[in-house]
Amino acid sequence: MTEDRLKELFKEKGAIVPTSVTTFPSKSDRSSAGICEFPTTQSASEALMLCNHTPVVCAQGKAPYIVKLAYAGGRDGREFRY
């Protein structure tokens, strides 16, 4: 899953597009991990509700990716990233 494809998914689902997307090095072609940052808590919550568990066609296999989103704590431990 590329950053551009993930942003496109949010747009397709009618969610606010993240202000920042960071992907982490992948251990396999079948999984991906990273962080999406949104301008507000509300926009992050709406994006999670609209996009979580969305199947995305994957060229590397028969089965689609299933997008799984979750909240993550902020760098300082007091704020949250969405």
UniProtKB/TrEMBL annotation:
One of its GO terms (molecular function) is nucleic acid binding. It holds the Pfam family RRM_10. Residues 1-73 form the Heterogeneous nuclear ribonucleoprotein L RRM domain. This is RRM domain-containing protein.
